[in-house]
Write a structure and sequence with these properties.
The longest helix is centred in the N-terminal third of the chain and has 30 residues. By secondary structure, this protein is an alpha/beta fold.
């Protein structure tokens, strides 16, 4: 008999023994006629079957989570769907990418074998497959198309993926909260800074956290199984976005990340990965003798006038409308227009805005505007294109339920968010021990937009108001006078509420069975059970089709709503259980109406006191007026901005479509 069958029979014996014990304990105290024997037998058999079914379901879930190959296949489909949409967003809703050229930039030592001298976007998957080990660093100037090239490689690997090949997953490096050097163990003599074992643990933990928080249906157990089996290929986007400034120093987070990645191994070889970074920042690190070891670094070149002409002719509906622009590119390859259109980002924006048509089919803008004398500098062309891009995106895309955003509103709101990100990037700002991102807009982590303390104080005031208001309304509605016990109960609730101020970063977590197999998960579950949150368990568990079928990217708006709803339901359940518990304790005595009222008014408010949803509401209350005003339906606005092409998805986060757009909107002069 194998171990799995033995476990099943052991559990059956436990169920039978439990039922037998209940029968032996309960029957002696029963009188004739108290129990229907047939009903009792059916009930006891049902209890045994329920226990057996629970054990089998649990075992099946464990087997499903440990089947890394099957989980990798489901994850590959989810990543393919999400990144195909992201690619379309970056290409302006089209499927035609500029076939950019890149050149191999060998380091003085420790280059990956098999790197060709040059390559093209259309051949990047073949270029990568020749590398030994498979470590590729993609560099280029701002707007050169680094993310698009990484996406092209990622999607090509997914389309050609075999059942046991790793799944490429794009991770924003700005979100990597690196531990201090003391947590990574002693530095070995290899010069990489950290031992392979410690580096594997750090990367393993970060990737697992990202998978669990981003893809609904992946548990910590499943994520760990994927990493242990080597079925995840990290595509690390934005090494240059980890630090403030254009020249990261030796103490920078980027240098620390490279130290960890250089020690990150699978077996005896360096683990495979893909990394993107701006050329200037990577060269600054190379000047410090810090680089990605055993990798091939490639640099994307600028688009030549001939390439720009070919792309325009392939992409537009009527090349004749663009003849003036094409002639300028041919005659003056060093003109401001040619320089402005020498990056895929600006060239894509130009084609996108000048190919827009009205309801009558007429083109809204003429490409001839690009050769006007007043657009005599790179900056003037950039400002002109971004203004049109913002205006047209606002006009073309309506928000859900026919909500209309004006260009001024969009520019002001996105400007607040862009200025917030740029301030974080320039200053390296931290709040409550966490470095704030300079690129990622995560809905439940945006509260520092309104300040470090104001949203937290508003959160406490809002929760206190709910506690006091609920208790006062209940007591007044039943005509109950305050007693000493009631005052003490409310005072204790407010004291406990004040202690939650130190919890600066609430997380809208979902409880799942996989977490119960870790010590931290069991402690968390025990905490919630003590707080009597059992009634909300069904809402917190993954739902059937997603848990066992296709994976999906978590929607931050749904996460916030679920966090609030489950907290309220948990509070109502806790109130009910507290009343029943009090009734049991006061057996033989009348349960006071006052106790019932307090149980059903304080408990629901307590269920959402420390929730991420409440912190999000506090942010919205703090940004109603003033220079940091944001829309009340912020989540819906960010989703609209993503669908209109102004933002892009990056897992659970939103990012600006391009850093140049973020920088432009952060400038107050461009928000007027």
């Amino acid at each position: 008999m194998n171990g799995r069958k033995l476990t099943g029979w052991l559990w059956a014996f436990v169920c039978a023994a439990t039922v037998g014990s209940l029968v032996a304990w309960g029957l002696p105290g029963l009188k004739t006629g108290d129990v229907d024997p047939v009903s009792a037998a059916i009930g006891l058999m049902g209890l045994a079957v329920a226990g057996w079914s629970m054990a089998m379901s649990w075992r099946g879930l464990r087997h499903q989570e440990s089947d890394a190959v099957a989980m990798a296949g489901r994850l590959a489909q989810a990543v393919l769907r999400a990144e195909t949409e992201a690619r379309a967003q970056l290409l302006g809703g089209d499927d035609t990418a500029i076939d950019v050229r890149f050149d191999f930039r060998p380091a003085s030592a420790r280059n990956a074998a098999g790197a060709a001298v040059e390559g093209r976007l259309s051949e990047v998957v073949d270029y990568y497959r020749r590398l030994r080990p498979g470590r590729l660093v993609i560099t280029g100037e701002p707007g050169a198309g680094k993310t698009v090239l990484a996406l092209e490689l990622l999607l090509a690997l997914l389309e050609e993926r075999g059942p046991e090949d790793p799944v490429p997953v794009r991770l924003p490096l700005a979100s990597w909260d690196l531990p201090s050097a003391s947590h990574l163990g002693p530095a070995p003599s290899t010069g990489t800074g950290h031992g392979p074992g410690a580096a594997v643990q750090v990367v393993h933990a970060w990737v697992c956290r990202y998978l669990v928080s981003t893809y609904r249906g992946i548990t910590p157990t499943a994520a760990a199984a994927l990493m242990d089996a080597g079925l995840i290929l990290p595509v690390l986007d934005g090494l240059d976005e980890m630090d403030a400034g254009d020249a990261p120093g030796y103490g920078s987070r980027a240098r620390q990340a490279l130290d960890v990645l250089n020690a990150f191994q699978r077996g005896r070889a360096k683990a495979r990965l893909v990394l993107t970074c701006r050329s200037g920042q990577y060269q600054a690190l190379e000047a410090l003798a810090v680089r990605a070891q055993d990798s091939a670094r490639v640099e994307i070149g600028r688009i030549s006038p001939a390439q720009a002409r070919m792309f325009i002719q392939q992409r537009v509906g009527s090349p004749a409308r663009w003849q003036g622009v094409l002639d300028t590119l041919d005659r003056a390859p060093s003109s401001p227009l040619a320089r402005a259109l020498s990056t895929p980002w600006r060239l894509t924006v130009a084609v996108t805005v000048y190919e827009q048509r009205g309801l009558d089919g007429a083109y809204l803008h003429s490409p001839g505007d690009l050769i006007r004398p007043e657009l005599g500098s790179d900056r003037a062309v950039r400002d002109h294109l971004l203004q049109l891009f913002l205006h047209d995106a606002t006009a073309r895309h309506r928000a859900p339920r026919s909500v209309t955003y004006s260009p001024d509103q969009v520019r002001a709101w996105l400007g607040v968010l862009a200025a917030y990100l740029n301030t974080n990037a320039a200053t390296g700002r931290t709040v409550a021990g966490r470095a704030l991102s300079g690129t990622d807009l995560v809905l439940h982590e945006l509260w520092p937009v309104a300040g470090s303390h104001r949203p937290r104080i508003t959160h406490l005031a809002l929760a206190a108001g709910m506690l006091l208001g609920g208790a006062a309304a209940g007591l007044w509605g039943f005509g109950i006078e305050l007693s000493g016990g009631t005052v003490l109960t409310i005072a204790a609730a407010l004291t406990a509420l004040g202690l939650t101020y130190g919890h600066a970063w609430p997380v809208p977590s979902r409880l799942d069975p996989g977490k119960l197999r870790t010590p931290q998960g069991r402690r968390t579950a025990a905490y919630w059970l003590v707080e009597m949150l059992i009634p909300s368990l069904a809402m917190l568990l993954p739902s059937g089709p997603t848990a066992a079928g296709a994976l999906s990217v978590v929607d931050p708006r749904v996460l916030i709503r679920t966090n609030l709803t489950s907290g309220l339901v948990a509070g109502l359940g806790a109130g009910l259980l507290s009343v029943l518990w009090a009734a049991e304790l006061t057996a033989g005595h009348a349960l006071t109406v006052e106790g019932i009222v307090l149980g059903f008014t304080l408990a629901p408010a307590a269920g959402i006191v420390g929730s991420a949803g409440m912190r999000y509401i506090a942010l919205l209350l703090c940004t109603r007026l003033g220079p940091r005003a944001l829309p009340w339906r912020l989540g819906r606005f960010l989703r609209w901005a993503t669908e209109s092409g102004l933002l892009r998805d990056a897992g659970m986060a939103h990012q600006f479509r391009h850093r140049e757009l973020q920088d432009w909107l952060a400038d107050p002069a461009n928000r007027a």
